[in-house]
Amino acid sequence: MELETSVYRPNAAVYDSPDGVEVRGRYDQVFAKILTREALGFVAELQREFRGHVRYAMECRREAKRRYNSGAVPGFDPSTKFIRDGEWVCASVPPAVADRRVEITGPVERKMIINALNSGAKVFMADFEDALSPSWENLMKGQVNLKDAVDGTITFHDKARNKVYKLNDQVAKLFVRPRGWHLPEAHILIDGEPAIGCLVDFGLYFFHNYSKFRQTQGSGYGPFFYLPKMEHSREAKIWNSVFERAEKMAGIERGSIRATVLIETLPAVFQMNEILYELRDHSVGLNCGRWDYIFSYVKTFQAHPDRLLPDRVLVGMGQHFMRSYSDLLIRTCHKRGVHAMGGMAAQIPIRDDPKANEMALDLVKKDKLREVRAGHDGTWAAHPGLIPICMDAFSHMGKNPNQIKSMKREDATAITEEDLLQIPRGVRTLDGLRLNTRVGIQYLAAWLTGSGSVPLYNLMEDAATAEISRVQNWQWIRYGVELNGDGLGVRVSKELFGRVVEEEMERIEKEVGKEKFKKGMYKEACKMFTKQCTAAELDDFLTLAVYDHIVAHYPINVSRL
Q1: Given 1.20.1250.20, 3.30.1130.10, 1.20.1220.12, 1.10.150.20, which CATH number is that of 430-547?
Q2: What pLDDT, in 10s, does the model give residues 85-119?
Q3: Residue ranges of the Malate synthase N-terminal domain (predicted)?
């Protein structure tokens, strides 16, 4: 399919939707090949069958938040001890994805998909979630791009460079990450209410691609997915039911669809066995989503002034609570016979500073060696330039495709709730407040203008980093914390934050240039980010709070009614 999109005209064609489904996004002939009556009908069936379960799961999240805000802390559930202590295992790993030593991630943009599949990584995770700004155009073009990728026909003509990109003979295995349960899709209404975003992402992709994918990529299995932002095994149970429903619709064997769950919320680390148990016929492991995990630690303990984090640059895998989380994930996955995937290397090559580049790449190497020696079966990279370093580190596994059987990590059974909740050590500084503010505003400005994966200060940032910046600023302001790393004894206040915002906006303007600053949405992003950081109550998700700013409804064609 070509991606030359037509201009919207009032009373032009509308999507052929089944009863009860209303598409309010811009009409496009290319998008219409994705938004067929049959595909929309499948999405509607999923929504109608599972919306009650999703509503209940979201209410359970709110109830847990109320408990944490009243002084409780997460922990292992006594009622599911029999699952944690049981000797069950997940279904065997499909041969097609036994070796996942390096995975590259990125948004579902056309050029990105081609480069990532050609990158030499074992897996490409194509992202509808944190690395994508979920505008109608981005989402629908993403579906078109993925269909072309699975078909093997995807190409991209970069007119500026006069270069045509196409797939190599050997490509990475494709995993797709839909949005989390909490995000709506406001451009599609089902029975008068917004569709559940992840069911749109999953449903459209699965409907159009399951058959071809199983032939060309999955060797009889698939499609493959990554599942984000879960907090409890009941949410995994819904996904398992969705998979079974999709397999039944397609007439394929139960257990064909496989998914890796990101453990990227603090409550979920206490539910890892339970999550794998619910998905045991469909699981290919867990992943350390460490940036979102830090965000979740702050959010979970937003009402606990005794659990404040230091500057976010100090919260790495060397912190006891982070290392404990990684070790327990490895132990849990290998006991259950599935992959334990490591975290993201967000660095991007620094082309204009060889010394700084060498230091950054050395950090990546050390991090990946730590992961493979700990027992991880693979890792994530944000940039193709990091793949050789990651591959080299994971050559430590030798000829084995993974370490599932060779690194059981039985020592990690001693990890306790206290280990997983230990308060991280380190100082808080004015520079930390400044960096949070500068990164948060710039990321949000890019997100509002259609980019969800943004290079900032030699790191590839997605929504997780902006979330850490936002919630940490909010917590520091809320509790008037002392910036104890500067030796000045200054306490954070709304007034101090206001001055920091003004000064950092001036710095951003200098860094990006007056023209880009003027054309970009920096001022709007600044207002939104400042409002979020100074609000009386902390919003659960930045991307949910500002989502309405990127929703673009088009009029229904009245001539058809």
Answers
A1: 1.20.1220.12
A2: 999 999 999 999 999 999 999 999 999 999 999 99
A3: 19-81
The DSSP symbol for 347 reads: B
- pTM for the structure as a whole: 0.95
Residue 153 has pLDDT above 80, yes or no: yes
Angle at 439 between CA 225 and CA 269, to 5 degrees: 40
Strand order, beta sheet including 184-190: 21-23, 184-190, 193-196
In whole angstroms, what is the distance from residue 144 CA to residue 149 CA?
A: 9
Cα separation, 24 vs 8, whole angstroms: 12
Q: What is the pLDDT of residue 487?
A: 87
User: Model confidence at 205, in pLDDT bands (50, 70, 90)?
Assistant: very high
Catalytic residue, from 438, 462, 470, 478: name it: 462
> What is the rounded distance in angstroms from the CA atom of residue 258 to the CA atom of residue 225?
6
Find the helix packing angle between 233-250 and 37-69, rounded to 10°: 170
What pLDDT band is residue 351 in, cutting at 50, 70 and 90?
A: confident
Q: What are phi and psi of 352, to 5 degrees?
A: -100, 5
User: What is the pLDDT averaged over residues 350-358?
Assistant: 91
Strand partners of residue 287: 262, 341
Cβ-contact 367, 361 below 8 angstroms? no
List, as one string, the DSSP characters of 26-76: PP-HHHHTTS-HHHHHHHHHHHHHHHHHHHHHHHHHHHHHHHHHTT-----
Residues 189-207 have a mean pLDDT of: 98
Q: How far apart are the first and last CA of the chain?
A: 30
Question: Which class does domain 44-421 fall in?
Answer: alpha beta
- Cβ atoms within 10 A of the Cβ of 357, count? 17
Is residue 3 scored above 60 in pLDDT?
no
The verdict on whether 24 is a catalytic residue reads: no
Choosing from 177, 312, 428, 438, the catalytic residue is: 177
Q: What is the model's pLDDT at position 556? A: 52
3-state SS of 430-452 is HHHHHHHHHHHHHHHHHHHCCCC
In the chain, where are the structural domains located? 44-421, 430-547
Backbone phi, psi, residue 328, to 5°: -70, -35
Report CA-CA distances (Å) from 279 to 12, 295, 360.
Answer: 44, 25, 37
Residue showing tokens 């990651």: 390
Hey, CA dihedral for 290, 296, 298, 301, is it positive or negative? negative
Across 226-238, average pLDDT:
98
What pLDDT does 557 receive?
41
d(CA 463, CA 264): 13
